[in-house]
């Protein structure tokens, strides 16, 4: 039996977003945008569902982890009532997601400690509004979530 090691509760969701890889120091874009969905969210990070993880020779998980100054920018501007939120994160783990004919990737990311951490927590609170509707859809369509 696996021992639960999560630092905070995960809340299921289904939020569309754009993922960009940038230099942490100056914001220069290294790769992206990649499209994805947040499928669960916590105080410390999110789980992303992505169909594309490479652009040319840049792998969103491995290349970001290998580059010392690279971070992920999670850009959320849908649905429009959310407004635009940009969260900074670092990749932690990645797994293949399979369900019937669907092949995608799940990637766990941890929020980067930045001076804007309080603003990020406020963004998370905004994002969790109306989460029940999105979460119900995702739960209904993902019986094989942890495959």
Question: Can you describe what's shown?
Answer:
- The protein is an alpha+beta fold.
- Helices cover 18% and strands 46% of the residues.
- The protein contains three helices and eight strands, in the order E-E-E-E-E-H-E-E-E-H-H.
- The strands form two sheets. The chain has a six-stranded antiparallel β-barrel with strand order 1-2-3-8-7-6. Strands 4-5 form a two-stranded antiparallel sheet.
- The longest helix is centred in the C-terminal third of the chain and has 11 residues, at 117-127.
Task: Give the helices and strands, then pairings.
Layout lengths: L10 E13 L5 E13 L3 E6 L3 E2 L2 E2 L2 H5 L3 E7 L8 E15 L2 E10 L5 H11 L3 H11 L6
Antiparallel strand pairs: 1-2, 1-6, 2-3, 3-8, 4-5, 6-7, 7-8
Which tags fit this structure?
3 helices, alpha+beta, six-stranded antiparallel barrel, 147 residues, two-stranded antiparallel sheet
């Amino acid at each position: 039996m696996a021992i639960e090691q999560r630092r905070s509760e995960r809340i299921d969701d289904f939020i569309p977003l754009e993922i960009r890889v940038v230099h942490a120091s100056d914001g220069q874009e290294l790769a992206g945008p990649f499209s994805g969905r947040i499928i669960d969210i916590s105080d410390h990070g999110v789980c992303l569902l992505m169909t594309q993880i490479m652009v040319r020779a840049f792998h969103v998980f491995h290349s970001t982890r290998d580059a010392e100054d690279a971070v992920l920018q999670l850009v959320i501007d849908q649905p429009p009532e959310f407004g635009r939120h940009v969260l900074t994160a670092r990749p932690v783990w990645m797994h293949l997601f399979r369900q019937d004919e669907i092949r995608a990737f799940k990637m766990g990311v941890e929020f980067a400690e930045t001076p804007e951490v309080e603003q990020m927590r406020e963004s998370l609170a905004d994002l969790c509004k109306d989460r029940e509707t999105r979460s119900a859809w995702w739960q209904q369509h993902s019986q094989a979530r942890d495959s």
